[in-house]
Amino acid sequence: MTTLTSYLDQHSTSTELNDVITTVTNVGKTISQLLRKGALADILGEAGNQNVQGEDQKKLDVLANDLLLDALAKNTHCAGVASEELDNATPANADGSLLVLFDPLDGSSNIDINMAVGTIFSILPYQRQGQTSENSDFLQAGNQQLAAGYLLYGTSTVLALTITENVVMFSLDPDTGDYVLIEDNVQIDADTSEYAINSSNYRYWRAPMQQYIDELIAGEAGVRGRDFNTRWVAAMVGDVHRILCRGGLFTYPFDTKYAHKAGKLRLMYEANPMSLLIERAGGGATDAVNRILDIEPTDIHQRVPVVLGSKNEVDYVKDLHVNYSEK
Ligand code: F6P
Ligand code: MN
């Protein structure tokens, strides 16, 4: 049996990285336990509400954010933390060599209905050791990530991680509290007939995305010549996990629903870490034209269209967009 601790000892390039990954995944155990207790842990509902006993309720995404922030602030290797939940990055230990970015609770609309949610994280090198970290220190392309992963709190808690060229998966043993290795080289099939998209936004998409989904819906009768199937977890972490397990395409495309935003998902907390996992598992990840991992960020909270998953299908979507813009 290989635990996360022994895996990190054998594969990680630095003890600093090991230590920070251990901090994040330990907090994941606490979040997992809170989710298991559900309503009994007073974690549901909006922050600021009072429960039936008149006590303050803490919404789980605020709680998860605070747990990660507190734990990482105490980690001497962590120079700063950026979270989807916080306007600005929080400096931690100036002598640290690593920056940690996270979406503390992805898919939070799933919490109150007892469905899958997760924590997504990304670790970048810190270039100005000895000085207090600032937002601008985090503005590094995804191809600079030293590690990325997610914790999926589903019917079981699973950790997907990449620190080497491989993507690996661990399952949290609730009896021992150990993350136990279950997959040592996750690979995604290049072809798929399964796709994930929120089709209710159809009228806000660009023409090539509308054409793509029209082709999938036409199925056997259309140009693709075969039927496709839809799955939508409404938590990116769940959809990406399914793709790492059995292939598929996930997209949250550019849409005009959110004025001045290039889609819904965040580059630094969602798109970059998921793209690193997907690419290292043999898949593709693009904003429909460019490789996501090569995008130079200009804002820690910037949004980006996302198309990721089985390589041939991602390339097909990309070709539709490139050919369309060249017309
Ligand atoms: O974090 C944003 C997010 O919750 C993703 O996890 C998920 O894929 C998406 O939004 C769901 O969006 P929608 O509400 O449009 O289904
Ligand atoms: Mn999210």
Describe the overall structure:
- The protein is α+β, with helices and mostly antiparallel strands and 327 residues long.
- It folds into two domains: 4-183, Fructose-1,6-Bisphosphatase, Chain A, domain 1 (2-Layer Sandwich), CATH 3.30.540; 194-326, D-Maltodextrin-Binding Protein, domain 2.
- Helices cover 30% and strands 20% of the residues.
- It has helices at 4-11, 15-37, 60-73, 207-218, 236-246, 267-280, 311-326; strands at 78-83, 90-91, 98-106, 117-125, 147-153, 157-162, 168-172, 179-183, 194-196, 229-230, 249-252, 284-286, 306-309.
- The strands form two sheets. Strands 2-1-3-4-5-6-7-8 form an eight-stranded mixed β-sheet, sandwiched between helices. Strands 10-9-11-13-12 form a five-stranded mixed β-sheet, with helices on both faces.
- The structure holds 6-O-phosphono-beta-D-fructofuranose (F6P) and manganese (II) ion.
- Manganese (II) ion binds next to strand 3.
Compact description:
The protein is globular and about 55 Å long. Helix content is 30%, strand content 20%. The strands form two sheets. An eight-stranded mixed β-sheet has the order 2-1-3-4-5-6-7-8, with helices on both faces. A five-stranded mixed β-sheet has the order 10-9-11-13-12, with helices on both faces.
